[in-house]
């Protein structure tokens, strides 16, 4: 399911990493398989760039690195959210990042191993359209939170500490509406 803010049919959420300190300072994780829950029984079927997952210890001992990534609503409140920013080589100029979604069924072991980028409050700035709000509904100054389903939205759910303030209403490279966000900690 694509984020609601994605306005073109058949397209998916995208990220423009304007200033992500997790990339610069190697605060990223790439070996955590993505699951719907803490028990590591149900793999996440689809994962878009711009979603958020939380990394927790793997109690089943099935993960190669000893940890797994789960949806924020399935993780303990103390787990840190990470931004999904997996890259794909695009060899056809008619395709872009809005055409990319990771599907578990397309991987050999049926699991997605996303690249997860740590977020530093009051430091990170990025552009995205992976938001569960209607296109045209956001304005400069609006605050977004990480939802239990991994998408950003105006609703405060399980994780209300990390916030993202809309600093610019923007256009994504493929012409869809997007927003530039600044990370903040709830005051």
In short:
The chain has 187 residues and is an all-beta fold. The protein has one helix at residues 21-24; strands spanning 15-19, 28-29, 34-35, 46-47, 52-57, 67-70, 81-84, 102-103, 116-118, 125-128, 143-146, 152-153, 159-171, 177-185. It has one domain (15-185).
Question: What's the number of domains?
Answer: 1
Helix content: under 10%
What do the pLDDT scores average to? 86
Structural shape:
globular
Specify the number of helices.
1
| Class from secondary-structure proportions | mainly beta
DSSP strand content: 25-35%
Strand order, main sheet: write it out.
1-10-14-13-11-12
Largest sheet entry: 6 strands, antiparallel
The topology string of helices and strands comes to EHEEEEEEEEEEEEE
Radius of gyration, whole Å: 16 Å
- Low-confidence parts, pLDDT < 50 over ≥5 residues? none
Distance between the termini: 33 Å
Q: What would your notes on this structure say?
A:
There is one protein chain. This protein is an all-beta fold and 187 residues long. It has one domain. The chain is 2% helix and 33% strand. It has one helix and 14 strands. Strands 1-10-14-13-11-12 form a six-stranded antiparallel beta sheet, with no helix packed on it. The chain has a six-stranded mixed beta sheet with strand order 2-9-7-5-6-3. The longest helix has 4 residues, at 21-24. The mean pLDDT is 86.
Topology:
Elements: E1 15-19, H1 21-24, E2 28-29, E3 34-35, E4 46-47, E5 52-57, E6 67-70, E7 81-84, E8 102-103, E9 116-118, E10 125-128, E11 143-146, E12 152-153, E13 159-171, E14 177-185
Parallel strand pairs: 3-6
Antiparallel strand pairs: 1-10, 2-9, 4-8, 5-6, 5-7, 7-9, 10-14, 11-12, 11-13, 13-14
